[in-house]
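[job 0412] stage=fold_complex status=start
inputs:
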Amino acid sequence: MLKRQTSGEVACLSCRQQVSVKETRCPHCGRKNPSLWGYAQTLQQFGLDLGVVSLITWGCIGLYLVTLVADWQNIGMSGGFLGFLSPSLASLVAFGATGAMPVFALHRWWTVLSATWLHGSLLHIAFNLLWVRHLAPDIAYGYGAARLLIIFILSGATGAFLTSGAGEYLTGFLRGAPLAVGASGGVFGLFGALVSYGHATQDTVVRKTGLVYALVGFVYGLLVPNVDNWGHFGGFLGGLLLTQLPGFHPLQPEKQWHWLGAVVLFLLTVGSVVFSVVHLWLLARG
Ligand SMILES: [Zn+2]
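[job 0412] stage=fold_complex status=done
writing structure:
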């Protein structure tokens, strides 16, 4: 499936200028290994996001189906549209839901990585994936595919971290979620990245678009019950701050370490889902 190119030219993975596939360093942007050992062309067939958007989409859909099937007798169908086809709470917790309960009561702190890929209902996953598919290709265009994945994963984690902390330490109106799942922290991180992109390139339209998306999202969250506002806010803040770092300036091309970071973060995420299940199994065995 992965075809390796051994001769000719290829678009550099970072700056997209043509380079020889044998080049060890891109003469245009300085990126090491610009052809990714000859695999760049295969990845580029997926588009500018190099398959990251599909990875997020199918990762979420796959895990949603798994959490449904794992406890199919307790699939929720009530609560109107918002609750239609909901995996059971037990199933969501088992596969790595985050929030004050898992993080503080069960000490499952790694769930800040897994929860982004889990969803509470059909409408929940549909909404989030519509946003991912609408926005992530633009972020890949602006920042590159590896940085897109880093931004998505890390802002999902900052959202999960903030809502878990607010769920444990704040009360009343300000209380965070006892239990939280969903990609919206990552999506709000993409809003933050959009704001940074507009700022860095002095494109006020892009900056305003990012701000308006975030604002509409927050207002929606305040009006609709059971929306994880801390998760949204934390995701937005995470995406915004991360993309202020020097390594995330959109006008500087991606480097090899971005890819290394993206792969490591993704593997840690897969590990966090697997370990969530193993951990609960070990707990149940006593
Ligand atoms: Zn280059």
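[job 0412] summary: The longest helix spans residues 256-285.
[job 0412] exit 0
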